[in-house]
Amino acid sequence: MSNFPKVTADMLRTQLHSTLGFLGVMLAIQIIRIIFGGSDVDGYYMSILIAANIYMFIIGMTFSTSLPHYVQNGVTRKDFFNGTLLASIGMAVFIPVMTLALSLLERFIMGNIANIQLGDSDINTALNAFEASGHVIGDIIGSIVSHTVQAFILTPYVDPASNWFLAIGVFSLNIFMFYLLGWLISASFSRLGVGAGLAFIALAIMISILGDTLQRVSLDLPVLNTFTMVESLPLGVTIPGLLLVILIPIWLIRLLTKRTPIKM
Q1: 122/112 Cα distance (integer angstroms)
Q2: pLDDT per residue over 52-106, tens digit each?
Q3: What residue segments make up the domains of the chain, in order of their start?
Q4: Residues 102-138 pLDDT 10s
Q5: CA 230, chain centre distance (Å)
Q6: How far apart are CA 160 and CA 103, in angstroms?
Q7: How far, in Å, CA of 181 to CA of 58, rounded?
Q8: What are the UniProt keywords, alphabetically (predicted)?
Q9: Is 175 helix (H, G, I), strand (E, B) or coil?
């Protein structure tokens, strides 16, 4: 009998506990920022949009350490993989929905009670500054640093006020990708050691940059000058390409976790 539903429930319960803490801490920080910054402060949604990428990446990196516990308790590697993957999808949907709900409440209270209109930075137009800063370090290294930073903190953004469904979808896809990349890196170190793990970090960076660029092209958002040649690609190319970018780390994680040695 398959145990992956139990793994999914257990993973969701564990992650929901830490995620509610994360959202609560970010909310407390947001309240402090509003008290001291007033209308110069970005809204809660924008704060979580950026921070959630790092949060999900870290969460993804921790779950390869959970594999020995489940295997020692009779859970197969396949059930662990399926359960963790489903739990990560659940978290990737929960965080944007909860964030949007809290953001709407925040704006209602600030606008109707405190008479403060919060702003939201247009992170979609902030790419050139990061690309220019990368060249200070050097053409090759600087470009890699710039692209990596951009993928983490200048994530593709859709204003929920214009299309809340698309906004949640893009938000969910971004943090799901970072969860997968964190998990991929962790699994590679556990299965193959430090040398191969470092190579997988480089691979994860390339996947992140490619996925970010394909999203931007699909949504008609600005891209870094390095990738302007792909701006004209049609959706018939970018959407399948984005799907492939998601499936590659999932496939690699499955290959790595199915053969990871377990110390009993």
Answers
A1: 24
A2: 999 999 999 887 777 777 878 788 888 889 999 999 999 999 999 999 999 989 8
A3: 4-257
A4: 998 988 887 676 666 666 666 666 555 555 554 444 4
A5: 23
A6: 10
A7: 10
A8: Membrane, Transmembrane, Transmembrane helix
A9: helix
